[in-house]
UniProtKB/TrEMBL annotation:
Chief place of localization: membrane
Keywords tagged on the record: Membrane, Repeat, Transmembrane, Transmembrane helix, Transport
Transmembrane segments: 52-78
Family stated for the protein in its record: Belongs to the mitochondrial carrier (TC 2.A.29) family.
Protein name: Mitochondrial carrier protein
Organism: Rotaria socialis
Cellular compartments per GO CC: membrane
Subcellular location as annotated: Membrane
Entry-linked Gene3D superfamilies: Mitochondrial carrier domain
Pfam families named in the record: Mito_carr (PF00153)
Membrane topology category: Multi-pass membrane protein
Lineage: Eukaryota, Metazoa, Spiralia, Gnathifera, Rotifera
InterPro entries per UniProt: MCP_dom_sf, MCP_transmembrane
Length: 374
């Protein structure tokens, strides 16, 4: 990973991540306030249920932006360091590490936010001072390990699924996913992760009153007293809520990333013509074209998108195979050969690749089919 790649990763993670975290909290905060107040049945009067819905949003915004930025920074750095952006195992490890780092900021702000939503007559500064005076710094980190126990498994499912759905869709349509498609992938991934980890959340809730209880004993107690269905109590509202939040969160992240981190000067159509240029082909790729009789069209869909089309009946497997070949040949950062900066990578490698095309038969084969390419 070069210094330029590292700088771009840091900028993209911090800016896109922080804006995504702030966006989802700003839009969904009123609903979260009502939910928190309903859970405080004994301490909150129903008459004030829908009043001051945005009270305490300041603490949420202060925490959600930095925590989300820290998560994506840790997540992307781990993935790039491992040099395997499409590996599910790497994504799971990166997600777990990212959650561990992000919760250092998220947990204190979540504690303050929940107290502000219930005690709407108190200022945020008063709530913080009261917490520090009565409980010390540990009061702000109340439930930190319980939060990790809930969030790490959730993220280890959600983010690899998000990456997988985006990769599948981009390969299926032959160009990168749009922000709304990335949002939909995040929504589906979040819903699946929420439904799978619902029993874990229930176990954590039941283990709070008695810290000495072992998880296995908690499971046995729940099954004896409430039955198996109790483990999935609330799965529908939890899945719905997280799916909506995932759509907003990942949609904001994808939108900011695609809007502010695409160097469009590298993709102008006058610099890179929408036709197949000979020096962009490697010997291995040409050999695959000969053996499978696949005609590869390489053209720009729009200035920041590159599209590959394969004219063959069973083109899905061939498309994936050729995509992996191109990725390995040009040492691209991940398996998406049609990601941004792909053309720049190909352009930098063009002279070297042109020297490798020494077999006249292979060159003539490509030239012969040049007229079929648009």
């Amino acid at each position: 990973m070069t210094d330029i790649d590292l700088l771009e990763t840091v900028q993209r993670s911090l800016i896109s991540g922080s804006l995504a975290g702030c966006t989802v909290d700003l839009l969904l905060y009123p609903i979260d306030t009502v939910k928190t107040r309903l859970q405080q049945k004994a301490n909150f009067h129903r008459r004030f249920l829908f009043s001051s819905l945005y009270f305490g949003v300041g603490s949420a915004m202060i925490g959600s932006g930095p925590s989300s930025a820290i998560f994506f920074l840790s997540y992307n750095l781990i993935k790039q360091t491992a040099n395997s952006s499409s590996s599910s195992q790497v994504s799971m490890i990166a997600a777990a590490f990212g959650e561990t780092c992000a919760c250092f900021v998220r947990v204190p702000t979540e504690v303050i936010k929940q107290r502000a939503q219930v005690n709407r007559n108190l200022r945020l500064s008063t709530i913080v001072r009261s917490c520090l005076r009565d409980e010390g710094l540990s009061g702000l980190y109340r439930g930190y390990f319980a939060t990790l126990a809930r969030e790490i498994p959730f993220s280890m499912i959600q983010y690899p699924l998000w990456e997988f759905f985006k990769e599948y869709q981009s390969i299926k349509q032959a160009y990168p996913v749009s922000p709304w498609q990335g949002a939909l992938c995040g929504s589906i991934a979040g819903g699946i992760a929420a439904s799978i980890t619902t029993p874990l959340g229930r176990l954590i809730e039941h283990s709070h009153p008695d810290a000495s209880s072992h998880f296995l004993q908690v499971i046995i107690n729940i099954l004896k007293t409430e039955g198996f269905s109790a483990l999935y109590c609330g799965v529908v509202p939890r899945t719905t809520w997280i799916s909506i939040g995932g759509f907003v969160y990942f949609g904001a992240f994808e939108f900011v990333t695609s809007s502010f981190f695409c160097n469009k000067s590298e993709y102008e159509t006058d610099k890179f013509r929408p036709d197949l240029q000979l020096e962009y082909l490697s010997e291995e790729l040409i050999k695959k074209c000969e053996t499978s009789e696949i005609i590869l069209e390489l053209h720009l869909r729009i200035p920041t998108k590159i599209k590959f089309e394969f004219r063959k009946n069973k083109f899905q497997s061939n498309r994936r195979q050729l995509a992996a070949t191109l990725s390995n040949q040009y040492h691209l950062p991940n398996r998406h050969v049609f990601m941004k900066r792909t053309m720049a990578h190909l352009h930098e490698k063009s002279n070297l690749l042109h020297e490798r095309l020494t077999d006249k038969k292979k060159i003539d084969y490509v030239k012969e089919h040049q007229h079929e390419l648009k």
